[in-house]
Amino acid sequence: MVQIEPHPSDEHLHHHHHHRHRHRQQATKATSSSSSPYETTPVPTATAAASANANGGDAASDGFETASERDVSENEEADRSRDQPKGSDSYQDALNDDELKEKALAQANDAKMVGNKLFGNGQYEEALLQYEIALQATAEMPSASEICSICHSNRAVCFLKLGNYEETIKECNKALELNPSYMKALVRRGEAHEKLEHFEEAIADMKRILELDPAHDQARKAIRRLEPLAAEKREKMKEEMIGKLKELGNSVLGRFGMSVDNFKAVKDPNTGSYSISFRR
Question: Its domain of life (predicted)?
Fold first, then answer.
């Protein structure tokens, strides 16, 4: 708050010619006293209110988890406008903005806690709604990326339980956009890919997990299980593609009284390359 004092007026009037020297002394004194007409009263720096410690622990077996409220609070403090001049309108706006962020964060934490309880009771649809409420509360808060990534991952687990694997992958993608090293989101996305027989994608997720944690036994076992399935699927897709090409070839060659059976690929034992031979 800025306190403004009135500028001193020149109360020294000229007197008789015999008091001119005294007048000059008084004028000099008055001038020195009026050099600083403004005085600023410092405003104490506002401190961030601590977030409610709503951690319910990390239930690794079920896949839902809670954000570290201390970490989120620290992120919030990093967002504050430290360099705003005290007493300015923008400084007051920053304080008001901080209060709104803290309220939004508290609302998100409350919704997340309710979602965790509903998930634990097997009420996955209801839990999805609560996690969405938490995400909406923090939608315009970049510093709340941790709690947002957790809510997306928790929604992914709900969809996984409901058998909606496409939505599981979408939610995991959102969680990983916010936290590229999020192990649980990688695990859940890999599981969903496997359910959809996206074996190559599932293997890629497991390999990423091993990059982050070389001792991750679950990922290592998953790769050993998935690689034969991926190879089998590749072979099947190859056969399907060849079959479609044959159909296309026969439709064209049939106009000339021929079919693809008239052509045979012959492998050269020396070079390993193939040549096409024609026979009736």
Answer: Eukaryota
Which DSSP category does 59 fall into?
A: B
* 83 exposure class (CB count in 10 Å sphere: 0-12, 13-18, 19+): exposed
| pTM for this model (two decimals) | 0.59
Angle between helices 145-162 and 165-178 (to 10 degrees): 170
Map tokens 């997340």 to a residue.
112
Contact in structure between 14 and 56 (CB atoms under 8 Å) = no
Nearest to 127 by CA among 98, 95, 99, 159: 159
Alpha helices in the chain (DSSP H): 20-33, 69-78, 89-120, 124-137, 145-162, 165-178, 183-195, 199-212, 217-253
Q: Which pLDDT band, with edges at 50, 70 and 90, does 256 fall under?
A: low
> How far is 113 from 233, CA to CA, in rounded Å?
42
